[in-house]
Design a protein that fits this description.
It contains 2 helices and 19 strands. The chain has 329 residues and is mainly beta. It has 2 domains: 32 residues; 265 residues, Glycosyl hydrolase domain, family 43 (Tachylectin-2, Chain A, 5 Propeller).
């Protein structure tokens, strides 16, 4: 009888262990599932998202996608009060209607505020333009009637602008495919001295520069490979100055595709005002059947380790609602 009980106990123990192993294996499979990605935050095909905050709202300024050769002709603005639900504020700049010097290839915008105005920088027919508005939702108007940075100003393509305003109020413009160009903007935000452009090319740099500052360190981020390449990804370098020199981070990309997520890149980053919480907006090939001309916009948390290194972004992490409790001054 004693032996029988021992056998029964042993059988139950083994059965329990097997069940636990199955549950553990299932849970592990769930956490590493690369076949089911979170839905995009914007409805439709949009790429090159520039995410920011004004007041207690988040804003995204993207490229309208879905045409071979990226032949879009206008820009839209999207707003949200929780990062999850986004409202299309409509067309804020229409190239054929609002510009005299470019009609198509409306790409990769960025925005900054200064002088109680909103300054919108964008690519148009491989030039960089600037537009001004009284509100983040526009409408935006061309104040100079010509490109701010004409094509041919430097090597590579004059595309992908990024406006960064430092703590002392100095504004910088970053841009370029093939190399990263940097220049201080004048106080009027619609002019600069092109003779003082600095050009750098960190290892692996292709396009889409973006600058953030955290705890006194400047992080220059960019996209590697081509946007039509499934390997499209994000890397970064650091400096003690917004003008460099920059030291590239070694190890892992900040963001790259995996599984069903392909071509994840051309990003922007936002800090939730009053916190050390950061989020990265980026595009990926639309799921399913997307490619470099059919991309969709996503947002994921972005974190730092104790030494200030940017940790790899999990493109499968489910986004939770975020409220801005204290608006940025």
């Amino acid at each position: 009888m004693y032996i029988f009980k021992m056998k029964a106990f042993s059988f139950k123990t083994l059965a329990g262990a097997a069940l636990l192993a199955c549950v553990t294996s299932f849970a592990s499979a769930q956490t590493t599932d690369t076949l089911n990605a979170p839905a995009p935050v914007l409805k439709g095909l949009y790429a090159d998202p520039n995410i920011t905050t004004f007041g207690k709202k988040f804003y995204i300024y993207p490229t309208s996608d879905g045409t071979e050769g990226w032949m879009s002709t206008s820009f839209t603005c999207w707003s949200s009060d929780n990062l999850l639900d986004w409202k299309n504020e409509g067309v804020i700049l229409d190239l054929p209607r609002d510009l005299t010097w470019a009609k198509e290839r409306a790409w990769a915008p960025t925005i900054a505020t200064k002088n109680n105005k909103y300054y919108y920088y964008y690519s148009a027919n491989v030039n960089i333009g600037v537009a001004v508005a009284d509100k983040p939702e526009g409408p935006f108007k061309d104040p100079i009637g010509k490109p701010l940075i004409p094509r041919g100003t430097r090597g590579g393509q004059m595309i992908d602008p990024m406006a960064f305003i430092d703590d002392d109020g100095t504004a910088y413009l970053y841009w370029g495919q093939g190399q990263c160009n940097i220049v201080k903007l004048n106080d009027d935000m619609v002019s600069c001295d092109t003779s003082k452009i600095i050009s750098v090319k960190p290892e692996g740099y292709n396009e889409g520069p973006f600058m953030i500052k955290r705890k006194g360190i400047y992080y220059l981020m960019w996209s590697e490979y081509d946007t039509r390449d499934p390997r499209y990804s994000i890397a970064y370098a650091t400096s003690k100055s917004p003008l460099g020199p920059f030291t590239k981070a070694v190890g892992h990309p900040v963001l790259k595709g995996k599984g069903v997520v392909k071509g994840a890149g051309h990003h922007s980053v936002v800090q939730v005002p009053g916190t050390d919480d950061w989020y990265i907006a980026y595009h990926r090939f639309a799921i399913p059947d997307g490619n470099g001309y059919n991309r969709e916009t996503c947002v994921s948390p972005m974190r730092f380790d104790a030494d200030g290194n940017i940790l790899p972004v999990d493109v499968f992490e489910k986004l939770k609602p975020v409220k801005i409790k204290k608006a940025k001054k």
